[in-house]
């Protein structure tokens, strides 16, 4: 992979039919080409059948919208590819990047010590789904169809959202969701500051 979703959108010439430096469409198409090339070359190697490939994004394009954390712009793909080990399926549980490592380690099927805050998505009940999104100073916590946004100036916003079309409607804050958001963010901050997140 030699490009990204950011300017100047450069990649090697002659790989796709969109010239380098010409915009996001080229960068996306080249990324698709590069992933395909990687998997095609890997499939010829003796270690391919024992390998789990994890392909994930950090965010979608253009995250500035009417609200601080537009839901659709943070809905990213995660593909776990191991055709000899995993049957094709779609998991629609609300989850975050912090859940990737526990999920992959679960697929590897061995025990380990950890202080991960994430969970194995393949073992998670859909009702347990929750997600965390951020931008610069804003912290978002998503659960069910609700989103809490915490601001460093002690401002709190609360929304109902639709995962399919990204529409949001501001609501009166519900304490249950507010306390969950505070618990996750302040809890992890406390553990980190006091070095309690280390495995002993």
Going across the biggest sheet, name each strand in turn: 3-4-5-6-7
Strand percentage lies at: 15-25%
Report the count of strand segments.
7
> What is the overall number of helices?
3
Which whole number gives the mean pLDDT? 90
Would you list the SSEs in sequence order as H and E? HEEHEEEEEH
Low-confidence stretches: none
Q: What is the general shape?
A: globular
How many domains? The number is 2
The termini sit apart by 36 Å
Q: Compute the gyration radius: what is it?
A: 20 Å
Helix content: 10-25%
Structural class: alpha+beta
What can be said about the biggest beta sheet? 5 strands, antiparallel
Quaternary state reads single chain
Describe this structure in words.
The chain is an alpha+beta fold. The model has no long low-confidence stretch (mean pLDDT 90). It has two domains: 1-44, no CATH class; 45-193, no CATH class. The protein has helices at 24-42, 100-108, 175-193, and strands at residues 53-56, 78-81, 130-135, 138-143, 146-150, 156-161, 168-170. It is built from three helices and seven strands, in the order αββαβββββα.
């Amino acid at each position: 992979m030699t490009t990204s979703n950011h300017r100047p959108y450069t990649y090697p010439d002659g790989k796709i039919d969109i010239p380098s430096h010409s915009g996001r469409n080229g960068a996306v198409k080249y990324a698709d080409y590069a992933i395909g090339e990687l998997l095609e070359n890997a499939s010829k190697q003796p270690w391919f059948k024992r390998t789990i490939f994890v392909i994930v994004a950090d965010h979608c394009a253009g995250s500035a919208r009417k609200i601080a954390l537009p839901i659709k712009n943070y809905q990213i793909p995660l593909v776990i590819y191991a055709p000899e080990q995993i049957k094709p399926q779609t998991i629609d549980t609300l989850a975050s990047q912090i859940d990737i490592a526990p999920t992959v380690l679960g697929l590897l099927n061995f025990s380990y010590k950890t202080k991960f805050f994430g969970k194995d998505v393949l073992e998670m009940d859909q009702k347990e789904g929750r997600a965390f999104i951020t931008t610069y100073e804003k912290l978002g916590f998503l659960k069910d169809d609700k989103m809490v946004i915490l601001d460093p100036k002690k401002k709190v916003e609360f929304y109902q959202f639709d995962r399919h079309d990204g529409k949001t409607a501001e609501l009166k804050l519900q304490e249950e969701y507010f306390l969950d958001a505070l618990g996750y963010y302040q809890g992890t901050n406390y553990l980190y500051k006091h070095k309690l997140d280390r495995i002993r």
